[in-house]
Automatic annotation (TrEMBL), chains A, B:
Transmembrane spans: none
Highest rank taxon of the organism: Eukaryota
Protein name from the UniProt record: Amidase domain-containing protein
Comp. bias intervals (Polar residues): 135-144
MF (Gene Ontology): catalytic activity
The organism of origin for this protein: Rhodotorula paludigena
Domain Amidase, first and last residues per copy: 30-428
Span list, region Disordered: 135-156
Length: 448, 448
């Protein structure tokens, strides 16, 4: 056996699946290693909203009992699921006092159906801010520095993958809820094109923005997931790795750039230098004033859609909901439907424009976060600033966080690659090449 | 007591609620009357996917037991729910062999939460085509002629309201699934602005098109629902009834007009004549070639989104799904993501244009269906042609079916009124005035 059991948790999912496939380990071996890691680390990281090792082991044994010809492409892959996504055998509680329950809602979200039917194992549910909406964080800490946030709203999903407790997790993103925890936890994150993975069974906040997100510690793992979720470009990119020599990158600071502080400023320069060292063409680009308008329009979309999304909860259990949720339904910001429609229509007009801009490059590069993870402060445990992510979310383009850079306190941070809508395969290929360079020479290595 | 119990089922919801409020009848009296109607008529109409009179009566008694100060605005209102909408206490089976179960999924859709917290009573689940997607109809028949379809996919919801088995029902619309059954069953139907009522807990087909729909036999009932669902225009229209004298209507045949046959052709002329008799200005308008493009683009959106929406089901239980669902996931029509995006972007650009056109009138008028309900034919029980509805659905504007016209076989058909997005209150006010005229003098009266 090439890996001692206690080290199995360090593998990425693809490597572990290879060991399972070649009968060097069982799914149970793998899950036992993760359980051990979770037992050691969960008291500090607190990434799980629901985790039951007996349930996890029962799934592992059932998978081990499957004959080879019944095994799917993800056979034995443990996945941690943000607790706003329905799982038929585990409770879904949304970090909301209105949904505290040990009883599962007997339905799998569409993405969970896809994962299970491909052989994945649902390891547990991970922490979130309430309804993946609010900024008040769960108890989760950053695995690289427990005095800092793991980001949010997909706090637990980012933390448990960054902490080697699970190789893969699912998040969601409405503002920056997938990319920000990706950056803060030093892992890969993919927010694919809007609605390219079904959102059925996910709590709704903004129908226009909400997107399922994927976390992993390797691009190989994201590629495996992309295959299972059938994220197929119209034109399949070459199977060979991308050579960075001659590759073109458009660095888009965007109008939010003044919010970037030391860590992101340094990463920005380092990222450019490293790509240039590889022979890539690097260009700083200005997206112009019409994209800056999104700053004004995005809140219209969010408030208008939140007003609708939470009415049922508001009427059913008003006394226990976060003030932000109540304020959306009451429309405290007095946003009109005309403003919401202005947001819809003007942003819709920008989508083909950003596609066309992104298509001129191998990828756009843009900040993932303003800096490394911020310090946790009671009582709200604010999960950080999503300013750099909002624009791309509402533009519905795929975004990938590439880890590798170090903040002023030694915590990780990443930068984002962006591609035109429905170009996940292109993005993953570019992300793999870029990730190798930034990951090796960006300055940050996980000490875990 | 002004109404003998056996006649209570004939009342619209608002009238019944008045009797309950003034203590002339109990909720149980009302539900008993509906149960009697259902027992008499369900063997022919077959509109229910799940109906249990004990459950209905238990809800009624619980409502009757509520003190007056705990009663909501819909106190005692029975609502029939299309069986693609989650109800925590009744099974949700989607007319799919993959979901045959007597066990409820323990979750209420957001719209059900809103209704229950406002005092409504969920009477039962109504029939649908599989996943509200397929054209193969359920066993439901048209209450006005049992040899004909009740339309679809909201077959049961249209039929049970048209048949006086329930005053109110919920449907959904992705193509014409709310408006078509409205027309065929001789009732009012409202497909509100996209995402103006939360779609959480509804099966997903097309995220861009799917919309919750409402059925009633009076505009007063739709107004009551609109209030509870907070369908509020930015500018509240006057509370006084609209005078048709001087009101302006744009009659838009659209490029689909060649599909209209005798019943709709006659209704069209009669509708104009009746409005003119009332002193309204009536203008035939040509929306021009860019709207005709929707005919080509809508299938791109539908196929692209269906391909994503059903992947989980496809992988989990491929052997029992309708061929249309399988074909979507396999992308048998070979629609590219580029075509899907062309559909998204070009149609998005038309939304503010149709808003501006509709804003020039009190309402646009357009066909609801090609004609009265077609004959049921085995084995597929085709539910009819949605051609006249697709455009408005994907444009996301509110549409209201107004009943009142008679087809060549004496069956009902309606015409649609259309308003700009987020103008439900305006639309309902216009619909009330128009409905009085068309309903009284359009030529059709329910013989039930």
């Amino acid at each position: 056996m090439p890996h001692a059991l206690p080290e199995l948790h360090r593998l990425d999912g693809s490597s572990a699946l290879e060991l399972i496939k070649s009968n060097q380990i069982t799914v149970e071996d793998y899950v036992q290693a993760l359980i051990k890691r979770i037992e050691e680390r969960d008291p500090v990281v607190k990434g799980w909203a629901h985790f039951n090792q007996d349930e996890a082991l029962a799934q592992a044994r059932a998978l081990d009992a499957l004959p080879a010809d019944k095994r799917g492409p993800l056979h034995g892959l443990p996945v941690a699921v943000k607790d706003v996504i329905l799982t038929k055998d585990m409770p879904t509680q949304y970090n909301s006092a209105a949904y505290v329950s040990k009883a599962p809602i007997a339905m799998d979200a569409a993405c969970i159906m896809t994962l299970r039917s491909s052989g994945a194992l649902i390891l547990g549910k991970t922490t979130t801010t309430e309804f993946a909406t609010c900024q008040r964080g769960p108890l989760t800490t950053n695995p690289h520095d427990s005095t800092r946030t793991a980001g949010g709203s997909s706090s637990g999903s980012g933390a448990v993958v960054g902490d080697f407790q699970c190789p893969i997790s699912l998040g969601t993103q409405t503002g920056g809820s997938t990319i920000r925890p990706g950056s803060f936890n030093g892992i890969y994150a993919l927010k694919p094109t809007w609605n390219s993975i079904s959102r059925e069974g996910l709590k709704i906040y903004s129908l226009t923005c909400d997107t399922l997100g994927l976390y992993a510690r390797s691009v190989a793992d994201l590629k495996l997931l992309a295959e299972v979720f059938r994220l197929e470009d119209d034109v399949t990119p070459p199977a060979t790795p991308l050579s960075l020599k001659g590759a073109k990158f458009g660095f888009a600071k965007t109008h939010v750039w003044p919010r970037a502080t030391e860590g992101t400023q340094n990463a920005w320069e380092k990222a450019k230098d490293l790509l240039k060292e590889e022979g890539a063409e690097v260009e700083e680009i200005d997206l112009g004033p019409e994209f800056e308008e999104i700053w004004r329009l995005y809140p219209y979309v969010l408030a208008g859609e939140g007003r609708t999304a939470f009415l049922g909860d508001f009427l059913t259990h008003p006394d226990v909901l976060d003030p932000l949720i109540l304020s959306h339904v009451r429309n405290d910001t007095k946003i009109t439907r005309a403003q919401q429609l202005e947001g819809y229509d003007k942003i819709a007009a920008l989508r083909p424009k950003i596609d066309a801009i992104a298509a001129r490059y191998d990828a756009l590069v843009t900040p993932s976060t303003t800096d490394e993870a911020i310090k946790l402060e009671e009582p709200n445990r604010f999960t950080g600033d999503a300013s750099f992510n909002l624009m791309w979310t509402v533009l519905q383009v795929p975004v990938m966080n590439i880890p590798g850079f170090k903040g002023p306190s030694g915590c990780p941070l990443g930068l984002s690659l962006v591609a035109p809508r429905y170009h996940e395969q292109k993005l993953l290929r570019v992300g793999e090449a870029v990730g190798q360079v930034w990951g090796e020479r960006g300055g940050w290595k996980s000490a875990l």
